[in-house]
From TrEMBL:
It is an enzyme of class 5 (isomerase). Keywords: Cytoplasm, Gluconeogenesis, Glycolysis, Isomerase. One of its GO terms (molecular function) is glucose-6-phosphate isomerase activity. It comes from Microbacterium natoriense. Belongs to the GPI family. This is Glucose-6-phosphate isomerase.
Amino acid sequence: MNAPVDPTRTAAWSELTTLRDSFSPDLRGWFAADPDRAERLSLPLADLHVDLSKNLVTDDVLAALLRLAEETGVAGRYQAMFSGVHLNTTEDRAVLHTALRRPAGSSPALVVDGQDVDADVQGVLDSLSAFAARVRSGDWRGVTGKKVTHVVNIGIGGSDLGPVMVYEALKPYADAGIQARFVSNIDPTDLAQKTSDLDPETTLFIVASKTFTTLETLTNARLARDWLWAGLTAAGAIDDTDDARTDAVSHHFVAVSTALDKVAAFGINPVNAFGFWDWVGGRYSVDSAIGLSLAIALGPDVFRDLLAGFHAVDEHVRTTPLEKNVPVLMGLLNVWYVNFFGAQSHAVLPYAQQLSRFPAYLQQLTMESNGKSVRWDGSPVTTDTGEVFWGEPGTNGQHAFYQLIHQGTRLIPADFIAFVNPAYPLTDGGQDVHALFLANFLAQTKALAFGKTAEEVEAEGTTGALVAARTFAGNRPTTSIFAPALTPQVLGQLIALYEHITFTQGTIWGINSFDQWGVELGKQLAMQIAPAIEGDAAAIEAQDASTKALLAYYAANRKQ
Ligand code: F6P
């Protein structure tokens, strides 16, 4: 693996520093002086229309950012990723989530480390589709012969956030009378509430865990198994024998994992397990067998359409020159804001209730990928890295935190995502409600870009101190992502867009965006503290003073 290029030592970085020093954002002036700005800076990305024109960039800045991409070898890193180079250096793994969405019959076949990756991917996709079709048709039944009405995905992180986000986004496609639920938290409330109204006879659990070692997931899987046995026994559906219990598990539990041996050890029949590979990172895995709940609830065809959407963006990023390459440009803009404006966060604001979980999904994708202080060769990073991603669907956010984006002291670049056609076209007294919703999307990006001057405020009759309070500085950068409708393909395109934005930023900063060692320490300590919280004196004694005091508070207030 080549040593990372230090971005701060490139000629492009010096150029950007000089440009920033004399930079005076003026979206009003730039739009007035250049009637083509919106058209020039709006680019197609498969079915998406991406308007970058309300960003704080001039042609000079864009040119320098593109030179930064060249000097840091962005194109070469993409080529390396697509061809299966072990870019995940700390785990010595290829990074091949893009292989999960290559169409069947792609030529030449992708062979990595001696494995025909295409054949492996298509094999799992076929068996997953066949299984989903069986559950949907009622050919697969519970232990008492009833059709499945609910699938409960038990997983966390990448084994949860992708499936739940996509399910919420594409629920209008759920047409087989099967609902999906998602249990992730080890807080027992999660499993208790999500199963409280379910019938064990018609419930299918999917235990989704790449490693099949994750404490939360395995604990919840055991709780679910107990719930199943207890419910079936109480209903007189099974007797209290090991054979009956094993039989119940084989009808009501399937698994998705890269560790099929561990699946068998849990008691799930390996015939009912769907695999994937270590070259798929957890947060990049919704398009692997981890999407089984989606293939069941939404249908295998919808799942394949989602994959086709991902692939369209993969092809764009792989083949489009940098200056028209939307994920690369958006990644470069993020670097511009983080490293030259000190932006610490980035808002993602979907104007679609169906994308309510999209910001949470992106938090893992972006922050687990680029929240790093060392580069891929182990040396310290040379500049700030991953920003905080956050957001809520419009218009809810407008009535909560937009105040700070409009008039606060921090620069918060924001991506607005909207769809021309709604899933539910309702009218209110003749008014198309979705059109009204979209008017808000357009109004917000306009207000953020162009603001409102004191003169304009005064012209409305406002005087005194209120003038300053009602003035908007503008020049708050936004990107508008517009698409005809939230279809499976479009959703796949959106997810892949953010995957590649993340990779572009990681590459420029010299980061391995595919490991996540920062989550390990907490996991280790939780295992050490677990006996202490149960009262083990030696374990308590081994803690620091603050933890000891918190344990004492727990012991004093524990009811049972
Ligand atoms: O702890 C973080 C993490 O490793 C994520 O990267 C991953 O998506 C999640 O845990 C769940 O892991 P698994 O799928 O192996 O249960």
